[in-house]
Each structure stands twice: as C-alpha cells, then as structure tokens.
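Per reviewer request, we include the raw input and output of the structure prediction for the construct analysed in the revised manuscript.
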Amino acid sequence: MQQAEMRALNTKVIEEFRANEGAVGGQFEGIPLLLLTTTGARSGQPRISPLVYLADGDRLVVFAANGGSDSTPGWYHNLAADPAAEVEVEVGTDRYAAAWHVAEGAERERLWAAQVAHSPYLADFQAATERQIPVVVLRRV
C-alpha cells in the first residue's frame, strides 16, 4: 500500500473510531483498536496512529510490525527518537497520557505469544523480516 493510501485509510479509521466511541467496522470490526498519538520526530507535530492492541492487566500492548516490512512504522520511529516522551492513548471514549517501554526477554516472549494466539498473521509478519518486531507496552500515567 502506498504511503498516501495508508494515510487516507488511517484518517478514515480515526474519524470512524472517534464518531463511534472506539468501534470501527470493515477490516477492523471486532478487533481491539486504540489510537496512539506520538510527536513527530522531525516535525514536532502530533501524529495519530490506529493500532491493534493486546490488553495485559491495566496495560495495553502494541506491536511495531509494519506489515512485516524491514523498517519500523513511523509511530515507533517517533518513540525511538525520544525514549522519555509520553504518548496519548485513546481507547473507546477514554483518552489519557501514557508512559511506554519496549518489552524484552521473557516479558516480550509472553506478550508476543499471547498476541500471536489471537492474531496468527503476526507470525507471518515476523517471518517476512529479519528485524525483531518491537513489542511496546503502554501504561497510564
């Protein structure tokens, strides 16, 4: 998918998410979806990304798969550019600031396995790239 097409799809999903209290139809119907707002690494402007998530207790977990591309998605690039930055998370009608960290070791393996059990296509994305797909944990602050 071209970058312009991806932006248009994301804009549509964001609008539908906000208009329907977090519910989205089409290819995302019934899938847990959140909106993650990061700060653009170059622009300094807010960047909103709709992401599939895994609930882990009071934390939410997202996966920087980028469809199995050899590069990480823009939202992850923005996080990596400022590891101390807080982000904003929207789930349903709840919007809050969150801290984040990249899961490693046993924590990463547990979260990865849990998500692959729900979304087997994630394993295909990992097989398509040599990089290890980052697992990002979000915690309300």
